[in-house]
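Example 355, ligand flavin-adenine dinucleotide.
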Amino acid sequence: MEVKENFSIKNLNTFCVDVKTKYFAQVETIDELKKILKDYKDEKIFILGGGSNTLFVNDWDGLMLRVDIKGKKVKKEDEKHVYVECNSGELWDDFVHWTVENNYAGMENMVMIPGTVGGGVAQNIAAYGQNITDVLFEIEVWDIENEKERILKPEDCNFAYRSSNFKHEWKNKYVITKVIFKLKKESKDLELSYHERAGRYGSLLEELQTFAKEPYSLKDVAQAVKNQREKRLPSVDTCGTCGSFFQNPVVSLEKFKELEKKIPDLQSYPVEGLNYEKEKNQEEFVKIPAGRLLDELGWKGSWDGNVGVSEKHALCVVTDKKAKGEDVLEFTRKMKQSVKDNYEVELVEEVNIVL
Ligand SMILES: Cc1cc2nc3c(=O)[nH]c(=O)nc-3n(C[C@H](O)[C@H](O)[C@H](O)COP(=O)(O)OP(=O)(O)OC[C@H]3O[C@@H](n4cnc5c(N)ncnc54)[C@H](O)[C@@H]3O)c2cc1C
């Protein structure tokens, strides 16, 4: 394992920000991980996956570890379920395709999300009505400070909407090394309804009807999601982006009714997610699409220098791959301020900002 010094990570983050890290290492095994953490124990650690939800603003004055531990296999199975263990450095999209190929149900709506399996757990990813927590069984981590392995259950991790302990108190302290998923076996007897496959997204059903026949297979659903995402989201091949820059805000029902009068066709969704704001009565709050607020304010397709907003989706901040982290930060501060000034709604970043 090579340790690089003063290394640019421009090609390792999807905003393509050209920042440098004092030390950089790509670990492919647990032994490599343990060794490097021992050798560089006085350095500040940053754990990097695919860099698809991280905005780097400054150089990293420490050791950046890219977790590239690969491998997946079926651990055990019963009549209805299969338990698959996947090392955290696997690319999420490759893993989802593998489950679909093998007829294991539960992740097919989450195709095409960039990044790694470890990053997906940390971020608590979701798409088209499916959430990683629906299929998470166990998470293996390396506890850097105490130099020991821990096995965590999802309920230990404080998962909430696009959040988990891995983004907060365990940030850069626990390295996710392996994830065990519990997936449903696809079989003729096990009749998975369309609704279970495609959730409440009517647009997915419309997409399916354009090329597939009922009963829809996992492959059909994954293909429909892919078709929709290609139409609706920017691609990391053509621009710098981390997808949605902000979380969809949660507002009171009263606030929603007020906003509805100003913003035509504003949708609302139930507040979901484990442990979500426990103290609040979930029925009195709804989630609203931040993209709709930004669209109404004219942000979609607008640019300032090297940073802009996707033509396809007002929540996706994009760059020409030359922008600095600071440029993105400044631009997104203006977006936040305009939503605050016009609607008195505080947007919160979904993307991790590394200052
Ligand atoms: C075009 C596009 C579309 C997207 N669509 C979606 C979507 O539909 N749904 C969605 O939820 N997200 C979406 N995202 C966001 C992003 O892809 C996910 O959040 C992804 O899971 C991030 O994974 P990563 O490996 O790139 O994480 P990184 O950006 O590398 O890291 C994210 C956080 O996780 C931590 N981390 C990473 N790996 C580990 C590990 N092994 N152990 C401990 N901590 C770790 C990092 O320190 C950091 O805090 C999209 C992004 C893009 C660019």
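Summary: The mean pLDDT is 93.
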